Each structure stands twice: as structure tokens, then as C-alpha cells.
Amino acid sequence: MGKIIAIHSYKGGTGKTLLTLNLAATYAKMEKRVCVLDMDFRAPSLQSILQLDGSEYWLNDYLNGTCDIKKVLIDYTSQCNCGGEIFVGLANPATEALRDMSSKDRKWEMRALGRLLSLKNTLLNDMELDYLLFDTSPGLQYSSINAIVSADLVLVISTIDTSDIEGTRRMTQELYDLFEKKTAILMNKVPVEFLSSSIGKDGVYKRFETVHTLPILKVIPCFCDVLRSGGITVFSRDEPDHPFTKHLEDIAAKMEKF
Ligand SMILES: Nc1ncnc2c1ncn2[C@@H]1O[C@H](COP(=O)(O)OP(=O)(O)O)[C@@H](O)[C@H]1O
Ligand SMILES: [Mg+2]
């Protein structure tokens, strides 16, 4: 049976969306069947990153109970051309939809959780997906908590900012630990000089390791090439020999065993 992975973080801009998409492309290259759902209803970004036309139905509609999940999914396999199969479910980026999603009450959120939980059956069992990836909103958004609750594994992305490290620590104690899910940290955007020098090893990593009980799955450097690409290059697909791609391959392999 396939696995659901939620990608989450305390702060925004840590690299959740970038890593989710690249992880999906990496799995597709490994001939897996994967699906990515944009669960960041406050700042949807998959549609623009993948330069897709809007779909008739959005993930919002599925959570609202107005359509089946299969109506939402876009088959991205031929466009991705990475092998395997890849599907995406988009969040509606229209301003009105952002407003609508931010005004949902608890009752709605509980029903939305039920719908998310049922994806295990429809996507993992019926469609026989190997991986379902949730790209989430940062922090304690209801939609993100629902994504975490529905997931088998949680990948928490953190930068080396003190506020991020501290926030991630609080969320570990007050959120991730409660759900007793397999959870691991990816440290992202780490300055390259920190990887080899003692500044990083004695400073940042120590600070991180001492405040965290969660395992650090991988440390990913900050790549100017990634920034330069303007956010639309899926490195794992477009730049197979780039070191960023190699990092993703390593993460994908570790996640398989995790
Ligand atoms: N390892 C990295 N090196 C350089 N830039 C990165 C790296 N990871 C993410 N970024 C960049 O940081 C910005 C925020 O990433 P994004 O995936 O949108 O974060 P989030 O989804 O967590 O808000 C994007 O411009 C992205 O390309
Ligand atoms: Mg994002």
C-alpha cells in the first residue's frame, strides 16, 4: 500500500513547495505513481509553478463535498515526462477562494478531514498510487493539521533561522509529538560553507540537534541556481545532474525506508 507524506513547516518560504514537487518528480523518475495535492489554500502555487491552465474543479471543491477527487486530479505524466505517473490536485488561487477558505468553521474542517482521510481508499487503494504528497500551509492552519493527521509520514522543513528553529521545536512538542507519526526534519537553504566548516557543525547543527528530538533526514544547501530559476524549474526533472537533484534522490531513498 502507498504512503501519504505531509510536507510542513513552522514558517513560510522554507522550501516546502519546491521540495514537494521535486520529490514527486524524483519518485516519478523511479517509475512510481505519485500525486501532489496543493493544500496551501492561503497561497496556492502549484498552478503557476507547473504553468497549468485552471481546472474545472479544484481541491477546494473536493473538500467542500461538491465533486469527486478524480475530477480534481490533472494527469501531469506526459508533461512531466519523467517516467512513472504523476498527478496533481490544484488549490484555487482566486482571491475569493482564498477568502472563502480562510473563513471555514470547525464543523467544515472536521468534514474536510473526513474527505482527506478517505483519499487513502480512493487514491492509494483504487488508483494504486505509491505516494500521495501534501504540500501544506505553514504553521497551525487547520488545513495543515488535517493534512498531518491524514499522513503516514511528516517531513518538516526548517531553515537555520533562529525563529524557525525555535518555532519548529515548539511545533514538535505541541503538534507532531501528539500525533505520534513518523516525523523527520529537512534542514533547507543551509549556506554551503556551513556544511563543511566548524561554524556550521559547532553552531547551527549543534543548536538544532540540542533543541530537537526529531531526526534530521537531510541537510540541503542553499543553491543560487534554484533561486535563479524563478521557481518554475523542477530540477529533478530538468536538471538530472544538478547537485540539488542528487539531494532529492537521497531523500527519496531515505523516505522509502523511513
Ligand atoms: N535549497 C534551496 N536553495 C535555494 N533556494 C531555495 C531552496 N529551497 C527553496 N528555495 C527557494 O525559496 C523560495 C521559497 O520556497 P517555497 O518552496 O515556495 O517555500 P514554501 O512552500 O515553504 O513557502 C523559493 O524561491 C524557492 O525556490
Ligand atoms: Mg509553498
Using brief descriptors, characterize the structure shown.
binds adenosine-5'-diphosphate; binds magnesium ion; 8 strands; alpha/beta; 51% helix; eight-stranded mixed sheet; 258 residues; Rossmann fold
Describe the structure.
This protein is of the alpha/beta class and 258 residues long. The chain has a single domain (3-257), classed as 3-Layer(aba) Sandwich (Rossmann fold), CATH 3.40.50.300. The chain is built from 15 helices and 8 strands. Helix 1 packs across helix 15 (243-257) and helix 7 packs parallel to helix 9 (142-150). The model has no long low-confidence stretch (mean pLDDT 94). Bound molecules: adenosine-5'-diphosphate and magnesium ion (MG). Residues 16-17, 40, 45, 135 line the site of magnesium ion (MG).
Question: Could you provide a short overview of the structure?
Answer:
With 258 residues, this protein is α/β, with parallel strands linked by helices. It is 51% helix and 18% strand. It is built from 15 helices and 8 strands.
User: Which structural class matches the secondary elements?
Assistant: alpha/beta
Count of folded domains: 1
Ligands bound, unique = adenosine-5'-diphosphate, magnesium ion
How many separate helices?
Answer: 15
Q: Roughly how many Å is the radius of gyration?
A: 18 Å
Architecture, according to CATH? 3-Layer(aba) Sandwich
Task: Note poorly predicted spans.
Answer: none
